[in-house]
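REVIEWER CHECKLIST
Item 1: Sequence provided? yes
Item 2: Single chain? yes
Item 3: Sequence as submitted:
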Amino acid sequence: MGASVPSAGVACAFERLTLDRLVNPANGGPFDPESLTEDYEVGLRIKNMGGRGVFVRMRDRAGDLVATREYFPDSLDGAVRQKARWMVGISLAGWDRMGWQGGFAEWWMRIRDRRAAIAAFVLFAAYVAFVLWGVLLVASWFGLDALHQPSHLIEMLLWLNFAFMAWRIAMRAVFVGQSYGWLYGLGAIPRAILANLIAMLAARRAVFLYLDSLFGKPLVWDKTQHRFPQL
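Item 4: Structure as written out by the authors:
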């Protein structure tokens, strides 16, 4: 596509010459300590200076997937703080820091990443609408004319959206199942609801952190505890 490939922390590798080109004397190295998502920004900077990144999925001689394995924070507070830092660094402050460069493909990739905060609020509105639909449905059972039939266009859009959601959840279950077994793959389906809750709470926190930064409060690295599996 010709777009940049954002780096993913310890799950990425760099050519030595590329690191040398990334070095900024003001930062004392290739990474910017002022950024909350310095690894992500490096991928964009590599593209900006004419380099390229690739997404590699490979297995070792034993057939195991070559990857960095660690557990996402297993408490609600830790998960929200971790995801909020990503949202601030990529969706909000990252917009200010990195701007918009490149052609259509690059813009498309950056929009996909930077929509996270807005998408969480849309998700919240969708859950509210779903609850209200349930209330109106129950009211209609008691003879109240509260539930109206949507137009054909709205009904078609709802079914189309449902199909996309089902496809996304199915893909998540399939790929999790391939790596960790089908029991975990099936568990990915209800975990999607928990992931949505974390995303909504993180978006709220991220927006307030970003607004505070606009009024002079510096953004700080919100460190969260990570645990690693026994391999």
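Item 5: Key structural point noted by reviewer: The longest helix spans residues 182-214.
Item 6: Recommendation: ____
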